[in-house]
Structures are given as structure tokens and as C-alpha cells.
From TrEMBL, chain A:
Domain WDR5-like beta-propeller: 80-368
WD repeats: 80-121, 122-163, 164-205, 206-247, 259-290, 291-334
Taxonomic superkingdom: Eukaryota
Ranges of compositional bias, category Pro residues: 59-69
PANTHER family: WD REPEAT DOMAIN 5B (PTHR22847:SF637), WD40 REPEAT PROTEIN (PTHR22847)
Keyword annotations from UniProtKB, A to Z: Repeat, WD repeat
Disordered, as annotated region: 1-74
Keyword Transmembrane helix assigned: no
Membrane spanning residue stretches: none
One GO location term (cellular component): Set1C/COMPASS complex
Any Pfam family hit: Beta-prop_WDR5
InterPro entries per UniProt: Beta-prop_WDR5-like, WD40/YVTN_repeat-like_dom_sf, WD40_PAC1, WD40_repeat_CS, WD40_repeat_dom_sf, WD40_rpt
Protein name (Swiss-Prot/TrEMBL): WD40 repeat-like protein
Automatic annotation (TrEMBL), chain B:
Stored PROSITE patterns: WD_REPEATS_1, WD_REPEATS_2, WD_REPEATS_REGION
Sequence ranges of Acidic residues compositional bias: 412-426
InterPro entries recorded: RBBP5/Swd1, WD40/YVTN_repeat-like_dom_sf, WD40_repeat_CS, WD40_repeat_dom_sf, WD40_rpt
Spans of repeat WD: 28-53, 60-101
Entry keywords, A to Z: Nucleus, Repeat, WD repeat
UniProt name for this protein: WD40 repeat-like protein
Keyword hit for Glycoprotein: no
Pfam families named in the record: WD40
SMART domains per record: WD40
Keyword Endoplasmic reticulum attributed: no
Region described as Disordered: spans on this chain: 398-426
Subcellular location per the Swiss-Prot or TrEMBL entry: Nucleus
Cellular component annotations (GO), alphabetically ordered: Set1C/COMPASS complex
């Protein structure tokens, strides 16, 4: 792997390794110029450069400059097979030791994230499972299914602890509050339900959207719930009162497929089915970053902050996993290997490890580990 | 967090009852995080309520007679209960079991009136029994029970006669934990140094009668007393010098800055509680016909701002939430009322980009509002805007309920504080109460 660098050092670009995927912003080789900054903006708007442009690699620069952002170098590490139909979601446990996955084969599986061994398979759902979520202390796993239920699984003895009835149509997404006392779920009945975990009862049913709810999540202190839907809206709710506090909407209302709060809950990372990921500032309802280059027109593909929180990672319908730099919005790495649409990605809570999983023609979960380029 | 988004102004004090929890509770305390409520019951059980779910999450079953007081450690891991059954129990909520592990049981030979944690170290307790006042130190190095006793001037005849009838009616640590304040049956306020256990001040409060209750302002610089003359008095506290070797103490009369009472019905008070910012005081009235909480505005000379009416169940205790405009009060029938300040549903929030206005406003069109701009230019500007770095880790919120935790009047390195922090407890931030799901699935 080699890296090219602008002469003025303002910016540097990935080179040959990524040259096959050229549909992302990349400045064509430029003559040395003193105003490297000015050249960035127009290039971003111009059509992608011809594929051969990045092939002309100048002399490799051995070490990136200290002030340049870190570029990950994820390499395939493990391949986990076990599901027999499309895998919809993968999530690392809070301590990172395990990976939970769910699929259209009605099963929830638990894997050892170190060795890739299967630990347990949870059977119980009578239809496909769309989402899984861990409680913050790792005691429970919740799964959302097309059988209209959310199930709570105990991690102590791997048993089904509760079946949450209430949704009147497919349940599509689920998440615990930071204290793990509450659970929020959303689904095709267009509602968001807030559950009491210890009792297994609905506390609130919010008539949240006018189309299926595709993601629901709590903020860092559990006082807010954010939901997004195929109606293209992102809504922020007050957990205690259940009142709507805010609605974020883009002008074109593209179907919103996944949202996630930033660790400080100031921003919401939202994926929409116009092949775009946006970072919204919740307070001002303003989009502050746009990430493009991947392909997402049909499925609800999940997005996450990559380990280290300096990058964004997302699945894609072109069977790849994309990693962007959070600040510069450049694609810094593309992971290839899956043989179908990558629906699910997840970041390890402490280690530089990413899990991804794909649909029918692939059926594998892949674990990628960052291996710094200069052997550091 | 959500106050950042909710741009409507809400009242600084609660106005209506949000929930009533059936608990047989006599007294109630919010934990310092505001997530839980501990309620002491007539039958000797203390119940921990989770305010997110309004459900009972722990059942502290250890006493055989009524619970007289409950208190929380600074990071909510430990709860101390005192009971008429002569026992004080410290419970560890971080234990995995449904009945939390007892960290310690301290037994006395008379009923216990109250027990509270040292604000900085839950291994130091202040225990008031029917006759005596003790500091119980559970740390191995300082282990022991130390009695706090009033010092009298023996040369004074009056003092000798006082000694006979003086009793302790209430006792509290101040928010720094350096001092213990004691209200006596003869209308005096005694101050002890926690470390040396010596009396450092005696304040006479004229006209007060028995001092039944003490509550500190979050800053620790003020205090309110409740006394048998049915008046709540707020005092500014003097600065106490470190104790001297020859056990000298200050003898000083304190003049209240405010007196709060109901001049018409002349009700007595069960308890009082400051708002988190210390700008408001809530008083729970011992009214014999109604559940009434008086709210006074301290920023406006202690003006009565509101009287909350909670119906016919009589009030027994009141406690203000540590960070929100919310109050918990208990009734003689055992309910816990959670008072809150309702926010109006803002329907404009359902539509993106809309702003609700209270009155019609004349819209002023900006000079360039409808100019046709080159799309490429817009896109370019957007790209430039997006160049700006975002901070996704840093917290935007200043700590909201900081007063008690962050005020360090004399720095952290004075002797009294160091003494209290020596051998710290394991009540560390970030522990989580394990969610226990009840097995009898009633939802089927």
C-alpha cells in the first residue's frame, strides 16, 4: 500500500489499492500548487475522474504526516457461517467478547468475536428477525421479528425471558435505553413502543410516523428517543413525556433507513435510500456532513461509527463495506469480499474490529481487523 | 439533555401531580442522579422505585419495624435505612441478587431516629437514636462509634440546668461533610466537627422551641430549620474555623434571613426541601385537611410563589428532585406523589423546519431570500460548510445538578476533607443497577 501526497501536504489521497472503486471524490493528480485548499471544492463536484487517473502513483511516501488523519487498513480476519437466510443485523456485546446476529431464518445467533465459534442459537421467533440489541451491561439481548413480537433473551442461561406483545405488524428495529430499564421498538405498524424491561409491558405507544419505522434509538443519557421511518422523517421524542420535540426532514424526503446518535448525542447519523449518509445537528436541524460513494437505494442498511470514532462505516448494495473519514468525508477504505448486499455493519466497542454481514447469496458474517500499514 | 431541544420555557417548580405510586411509604428520598426514589415503609421494608418505568426495582427487606429514614450515597450505590427496630442497615444496590446484599448492619440499643451518609464517604454514618448522636465509622483504620455530646460551660448555673433537659431532635451533615449540625429540643443549633467530633459552635435561635428539622441549601452556605413554633427559618451560616486544640467553641445567636410560615392557618411543617439551584424552597405542610406544599421564591425575598394542592391524603414528607422541577411527596395513606411541570405538546415539532409562534409576526423578507442562485454555487458553499470539523465525543452539557458535587469552598486539600476521603468507599460512578425481570410472565 502506498500513499500519494500533495506537495503542500494539505491533503493526501488513497492510491492504487482503491483505484477499482472510483465513484468517490478524488482529486486528479495535480501539479504542485500553492493553493491546494482551493482545488478541493470544485473537484468534489466534478464527475469522478477516469479510473486510470489514480494509477499514476508518484513515489510512495513512507510515513503519513503526523497531522494527517489516521487511515485505517482493515483486513479480513474471520468468516462466520451459520445463518441460512439473509442476515439483517449484527451487534457486538458491550464488552466486545461476543457478536449477536439475526437473520430471516428466524434465528438469533451468538458468536465468540475472538475465535468466530458459535456460542448459542436462540430459537423462538416464528418469522424472520430484523434487528437485535444488547442491554448496556450485556445481561439481555432483544430481538425484533416479523412475528410482531420483541423477545428478550437472558444472557445468564440463554433462555427466552420475555415475549413483548403489542406491535400489530412486523417489528423492524429495537434498542435499549442506557440504563437498560427501557426498550424502544419500531415497526411496520408505524408506531414506536417503549417497554418496561423488567415487567415486559408497554409503557408508551407513540404514533410516530406515517410509514414503517426503520430505526429507533436512545441518546446517551436516555432522555431522548430518535426514530426514523420510510416516510423520510427523523423524529426526536422526550422519553419521559413521549412528546415529539423535533422533526428533521430533508427537502426530497428520501426513505430514511437507519439512524444513530453520536456518542455525545449532539448529532444524528442518518442513512437514506438516495445512497447518502448525513450527519444532522439535532439542535439546529442542520445537515453538517454528507457522505456518499456507496450504493443504497433499496434496503435498510445500517451505519456505525468505526472503532476510534474517527470514521463512519456502512454497508452497501454493491457488496462492499465503505469507510469514510468523519471530518473530511473522503472514503478512506473499501472492504471487499461479500458476495451480496451488505445490510449490517457493527463496530467493536474497544478494539479496531468491524463486523459485516450480507444477504442470501453470501450468508457470511465477516470480521475485519485494522492492521496499521507501517507496522506500528 | 432534552432541555437543549425543548425551547419552551417551563416553570422552575412543579405544578401538578404526574404519578401516584402506591407504596405504603412514610418517607421518601430521590437518589443524587434523580433516577430512583427510595421509600421507607411502615412495615420495615424500603422500596426502590425506578422513575423511568415507575416500577419497583428493589425491595429492601431487613427491618421488622417502621423505617424512620432513608439516605443515598453520592453515586447512588448504597442506601442506608434506619428503623425503630434499633438497626441501621447499609444496602449495596450493585449486588446481583434480587434482595440486595447488606454491606453492614449497625445495631443500637434504642430505636434509631435517622441515619445518613457522609456526603463524601459512605463508610461514615451519622446516626441519631432516641437519646444519643453517633458518628459511626466503618473504615478499618478509624473503626468505631463516636458519640457527639454537647459541651456546657460548667461555671454557668444556667448551663447545668440546661444539660438536664437538652435533647437532640435532628442531625445532619452539611453538604461538605465537614460539619454535623444538630437541632436540639431547647431551640439551639449545635455544630460539630466531623473529624475531631468536637463541638465548635452553639447557636441560639430565639423563639424557635424544638428544632425538628434541618435542610441545607445546595451551596452549603445556608440552612433552613423547622421548629415547633411552626416557622421555617433560613440562616446564612458563618465560616467555621478549624477546631482548636483546647476545644473552644463559638457561642453565637443566629438571626434568620427569612421566616416562612402561613400567617392565616398557622400550619406546622413536616419537612422542607430546596430546589437544585437553591432559588426555591418547598415546604410540606402538616395540614390536617389537605395535602399542601408551599413554594417560596428565594430570589424575590421569599415571596410565596405557589401552593400545591394534592387532595385529601395528608402529607408526611417532601423531597425535591436533584436536578429537575419535580417533587416527591408522601401521604398518610402511603402514596408517593410525583409532582412535575407538564409541558404542552408542540404540534409544530411534528413538521420539520416549522417554527411555532405565539403571536402573529410580520415577516420580513431578507434581501436575497428569493434570488435565484446558481445550483453549483449552492453546492459549493454547502461543501465548504461541511469542511468544518464536528465534535462527536465532547459533551455539550454543563453538569446540571452540579451544586453539591462541584462546590469546593476551601479546596479539597484541607484536613477534614482529606480525612473523609482517606480509604474511599467503592461507590464509583458508572455502576449500573442490574435489571431483574420478574419471571411470572403476566403478559401471556
Amino acid at each position: 500500500m502506498s500513499i500519494t501526497m500533495d506537495v503542500d501536504g494539505d491533503d493526501y489521497k488513497p492510491a492504487d489499492d482503491f483505484s477499482t472503486t472510483n465513484d468517490y471524490e478524488e482529486s486528479p493528480p495535480q501539479p504542485p500548487s500553492s493553493d491546494g485548499r482551493d482545488s478541493v471544492a470544485p473537484t468534489a463536484l466534478s464527475p469522478p475522474p477516469p479510473p486510470d487517473s489514480s494509477a499514476q502513483t508518484p513515489a510512495p511516501v513512507p510515513q503519513p504526516k503526523p497531522d494527517t488523519p489516521y487511515r485505517p487498513n482493515y483486513k479480513a480476519h474471520l468468516m462466520l457461517s451459520g445463518h441460512s437466510r439473509s442476515i439483517a443485523s449484527v451487534k457486538f456485546s458491550p464488552d466486545g467478547s461476543m457478536l449477536a446476529s439475526c437473520a430471516a431464518d428466524k434465528l438469533v445467533k451468538l458468536w465468540d468475536s475472538e475465535t468466530g465459534d458459535i456460542i448459542h442459537t436462540f430459537e423462538g421467533h416464528t418469522e424472520g428477525v430484523s434487528d437485535v440489541a444488547w442491554s448496556s451491561n450485556g445481561d439481555f439481548l432483544a430481538s425484533a421479528s416479523d412475528d410482531k413480537t420483541v423477545r428478550l433473551w437472558s444472557m445468564e442461561d440463554y433462555t427466552e425471558r420475555k415475549v413483548l406483545y403489542g406491535h400489530t405488524n412486523f417489528v423492524f428495529c429495537v434498542n435499549f435505553s442506557p440504563s437498560s430499564t427501557l426498550l424502544a421498538s419500531g415497526g411496520f405498524d408505524e408506531s414506536v413502543r417503549v417497554w418496561d424491561v423488567s415487567q415486559g409491558k408497554t409503557l408508551k405507544a407513540l404514533p410516530a410516523h406515517s410509514d414503517p419505522v426503520t430505526a429507533v434509538t436512545f441518546n446517551h443519557d436516555g432522555t431522548l428517543i430518535a426514530s426514523c421511518s420510510m416516510d423520510g422523517l427523523i423524529r426526536i421524542w422526550d422519553t419521559e413525556s413521549g412528546q415529539c420535540l423535533k422533526t428533521l426532514a430533508d427537502d426530497d424526503n428520501p426513505i430514511c433507513s437507519h439512524i444513530k446518535f453520536t456518542p455525545n448525542s449532539v448529532f444524528i447519523l442518518a442513512s437514506t435510500q438516495d445512497s447518502t449518509i448525513r450527519l444532522w445537528k439535532a439542535q439546529t436541524s442542520k445537515c453538517v456532513k454528507t457522505y456518499t460513494g456507496h450504493s443504497n437505494r433499496t434496503y435498510c442498511i445500517s451505519t456505525d461509527f468505526a472503532p476510534g470514532r474517527k470514521h463512519i462505516v456502512s454497508g452497501s448494495e454493491d457488496m462492499k463495506v465503505y469507510i469514510w473519514d468523519l471530518q473530511t468525508r473522503e472514503i478512506v477504505q473499501v472492504l471487499e469480499g461479500h458476495r451480496d448486499v451488505v445490510l449490517a455493519v457493527a463496530s467493536h466497542p474497544t478494539r479496531p474490529m468491524i463486523a459485516s454481514a450480507a444477504m442470501e447469496k453470501d450468508l457470511t458474517i465477516r470480521i475485519w481487523i485494522d492492521q496499521p500499514m507501517n507496522g506500528a | 439533555m432534552n432541555r437543549v431541544l425543548a425551547n419552551t420555557l417551563t416553570s422552575p417548580y412543579p405544578t401538578t401531580i404526574q404519578t401516584s405510586l402506591e407504596s405504603y411509604a412514610l418517607n421518601v428520598r430521590y437518589d443524587p442522579s434523580g433516577r430512583f426514589l427510595a421509600a421507607g415503609r411502615q412495615d420495615g421494608v424500603a422500596v426502590i422505585w425506578d422513575l423511568d418505568t415507575k416500577g419497583q426495582v428493589r425491595w429492601l427487606d431487613g427491618h421488622v419495624k417502621m423505617i424512620t429514614s432513608v439516605d443515598w450515597s453520592q453515586n447512588s450505590r448504597y442506601v442506608v435505612t434506619a428503623s425503630k427496630d434499633w438497626n441501621v442497615i447499609i444496602w449495596d444496590l450493585a449486588s446481583d441478587t434480587e434482595l440486595p446484599r447488606r454491606k453492614a448492619t449497625v445495631r443500637f440499643d434504642v430505636p434509631v431516629v435517622s441515619a445518613s451518609f457522609h456526603p463524601k464517604n459512605s463508610q461514615i454514618l451519622l446516626v441519631l437514636t432516641s437519646f444519643e448522636l453517633w458518628i459511626v465509622d466503618l473504615r478499618s483504620e478509624y473503626k468505631g462509634q463516636y458519640e457527639l455530646a454537647e459541651v456546657f460551660d460548667d461555671s454557668d448555673e444556667e448551663g447545668a440546668s440546661q444539660r438536664a433537659r437538652n435533647g437532640f431532635a435532628t442531625a445532619r451533615f452539611d453538604p461538605s461533610g465537614k460539619h454535623v449540625f444538630v437541632g436540639t429540643t431547647s431551640g439551639t443549633l449545635l455544630v460539630f466537627n466531623t473529624r475531631t467530633k468536637t463541638m465548635i459552635a452553639r447557636h441560639r435561635i430565639s423563639g424557635a422551641g424544638i428544632i425538628r428539622g434541618l435542610v441545607f441549601h445546595p451551596s452549603g452556605r445556608r440552612l433552613v430549620t423547622n421548629s415547633s413554633d411552626r416557622v421555617l427559618r433560613q440562616f446564612n451560616l458563618p465560616v467555621y474555623a478549624p477546631p482548636t486544640a483546647d476545644d473552644e467553641y463559638i457561642e453565637q445567636e443566629l438571626e434568620p434571613t427569612h421566616r416562612f410560615h402561613d400567617p392565616i392557618s398557622k400550619v406546622a411543617w413536616h419537612n422542607m426541601s430546596y430546589s437544585p439551584d437553591g432559588e426555591w424552597l418547598a415546604g410540606g405542610a402538616a395540614d390536617d385537611a389537605a395535602h399542601k406544599i408551599y413554594i417560596w421564591d428565594l430570589a424575590r425575598e421569599g415571596l410565596l410563589a405557589s401552593t400545591l394542592d394534592g387532595g385529601r391524603e395528608l402529607l408526611t414528607d417532601v423531597h425535591w428532585h436533584p436536578s429537575k422541577p419535580s417533587i416527591a411527596s408522601t401521604t398518610n395513606l402511603g402514596s408517593i406523589f410525583i409532582w412535575h411541570c407538564p409541558t404542552e405538546e408542540r404540534w409544530g415539532a411534528f413538521a420539520g423546519g416549522f417554527e411555532e409562534v405565539d403571536e402573529n409576526i410580520e415577516y420580513e423578507e431578507r434581501e436575497d431570500e428569493f434570488d435565484i442562485e446558481d445550483e453549483a454555487e449552492i453546492a459549493r458553499r454547502k461543501m465548504l460548510e461541511e469542511e468544518e470539523d464536528v465534535d462527536i465525543d465532547g459533551m455539550i452539557e454543563p453538569a446540571t445538578n452540579g451544586a453539591t458535587n462541584h462546590i469546593r469552598p476551601n479546596g479539597e486539600d484541607d484536613e477534614d476533607t482529606l480525612w473523609a476521603l482517606d480509604d474511599p468507599d467503592d461507590d464509583v460512578k458508572g455502576w449500573k443497577l442490574k435489571v431483574i425481570s420478574d419471571d411470572d410472565d403476566t403478559m401471556m
